[in-house]
UniProtKB/TrEMBL annotation:
InterPro entries: DNA_glycosylase, Endonuclease-III-like_CS2, Endonuclease3_FeS-loop_motif, Endouclease-III_FeS-bd_BS, HhH-GPD_domain, HhH_base_excis_C, HhH_motif, Nth. [4Fe-4S] cluster binds at C293, C300, C303, C309. Its EC number is 4.2.99.18. The gene is nth. Binds 1 [4Fe-4S] cluster. It catalyses: 2'-deoxyribonucleotide-(2'-deoxyribose 5'-phosphate)-2'-deoxyribonucleotide-DNA = a 3'-end 2'-deoxyribonucleotide-(2,3-dehydro-2,3-deoxyribose 5'-phosphate)-DNA + a 5'-end 5'-phospho-2'-deoxyribonucleoside-DNA + H(+). Pfam families: EndIII_4Fe-2S, HHH, HhH-GPD. The lineage of its organism: Bacteria, Bacillati, Actinomycetota, Actinomycetes, Kitasatosporales. Belongs to the Nth/MutY family. DNA repair enzyme that has both DNA N-glycosylase activity and AP-lyase activity. The DNA N-glycosylase activity releases various damaged pyrimidines from DNA by cleaving the N-glycosidic bond, leaving an AP (apurinic/apyrimidinic) site. The AP-lyase activity cleaves the phosphodiester bond 3' to the AP site by a beta-elimination, leaving a 3'-terminal unsaturated sugar and a product with a terminal 5'-phosphate. This is Endonuclease III. Residues 7-22, 31-58, 72-96 have a biased composition (Low complexity). Residues 1-106, 331-358 are annotated as: Disordered.
Length: 358
């Protein structure tokens, strides 16, 4: 029985094999089970690989624009900094007594030139306050003005030039006699040595004439850049900045420069103004320093440039008290008698030029 059943089964198998049905079913079954499983197993990693690749591509795309935009960020930041600087400068254009520390170069130039324009209106008659008739007298008077007032020099030079009118005369003078004349100016021995020395140099090296070049003037005994620029600007009409004690004090108060060396101050301030303005600028600043913006007690309340001054408040700010601090040398302005300070103020409380001033 078993054998017949087995034979039947084998016969059925052979028959089905001959017809080709069973192998097809097995093949489909095999494909449906084992290969399908493998395919599904393989597809999952492929999907994850594609996903990771896509993520990398997306991240690369995101990174790419950032790298391209990196250079574009620099100009985007610059306007913000520029705007911040402009905002910081704004108070300097108003009447704020103290402009910001971050004042731009352009704002500084504008403020400095505005101060000079204001002073030009207050002191239209500003000029060298030393009396002289020729370049020789001017260079000698300027040397004598060190450590004393122009008024004292003007009181001394008439006797000196009356006795020694030319460089040749002063070069041959007896030092003791010159010292006696110059005694009221202070440091008379050193000044005597300087004026006799420069007179000899003028006689021996320049034919008795004062040279009109800076490099020649500074070679004369007792003549530095300050004295040379006084002579060049006022005797030869060549622009120059005179950095005396008043000039140094005021330009630092106005924060035109923080330099302390006279040569560096000259260069820094000269860069703020046209060269043609240098000589008049020096007169305006020096006159203002002598009359209102004093070293110890500046008359801030009577100052015409107070709204533009970062140092406003260092002196007396009350207008009435400030007016009492105004100083004018004995003799007042040219051709005028000495008047009380109030006489030099206009209706608005500003220093006004005296009548008849040129």
């Amino acid at each position: 029985m078993k054998k017949s059943a087995a034979n039947k089964e084998s016969a059925a198998t052979e028959k089905s094999a001959a017809s080709g049905k069973t192998p097809a079913k097995k093949k489909s079954a095999a494909k449906s089970k084992t290969p399908a499983t493998k395919k599904s197993a393989v597809k999952k990693p492929a999907a994850s690989a594609k996903t990771s690749a896509a993520q990398k591509t997306a991240s690369a795309k995101k990174d790419a624009p950032l790298k391209r935009q990196a250079p574009a960020k620099k100009p985007a930041v610059a306007p913000k900094k520029a705007a911040a600087a402009v905002k910081g400068v704004a108070p300097a254009k108003t009447v704020a007594p103290k402009p910001p520390r971050g004042e731009s170069r352009t704002a500084l130039v504008r403020r400095a030139r505005r101060i000079d324009r204001e002073l030009a209106e207050v002191y239209p008659y500003a000029h060298p306050e030393l009396d002289f008739e020729n370049p020789f007298q001017l260079v000698v008077a300027t040397v004598l003005s060190a450590q004393t007032t122009d008024l004292r020099v003007n009181q001394t030079t008439p006797a000196l030039f009356a006795k020694y009118p030319t460089p040749e005369d002063l070069a041959a003078a007896v030092p003791e006699e010159v010292e006696e004349i110059l005694r009221p100016t202070g440091f008379f021995r050193a000044k005597t040595k300087s004026v006799i020395g420069l007179s000899k140099a003028l006689t021996e090296d320049f034919g008795g004439e004062v040279p009109g070049r800076l490099e020649d003037l500074v070679k004369l005994p007792g003549v530095g850049r300050k004295t040379a620029f006084v002579v060049l600007g006022n005797a030869f009409g060549r622009p120059g900045i005179t950095v005396d004690t008043h000039f140094q004090r005021l330009v630092r108060r106005w924060r035109w420069t923080e330099e302390t060396d006279p040569d560096k101050i000259e260069a820094a301030v000269g860069a703020l103004f046209p060269k043609s303005d240098w000589t008049d600028l020096s007169h305006h600043v020096i006159w203002h320093g002598r009359r209102i913006c004093h070293a110890r007690k500046p008359a801030c309340g009577a100052c015409p440039v107070a709204p533009l001054c970062p140092a406003f408040g260092e002196g007396e700010t009350d207008p009435e008290k400030a007016r009492k601090l105004l100083k004018y040398e004995k003799g007042g302005f040219p051709g005028q008698r000495l008047k009380p300070p109030q006489a030099y103020l206009d209706a608005g409380g500003r220093p006004a030029p005296p009548l008849g001033a040129g």
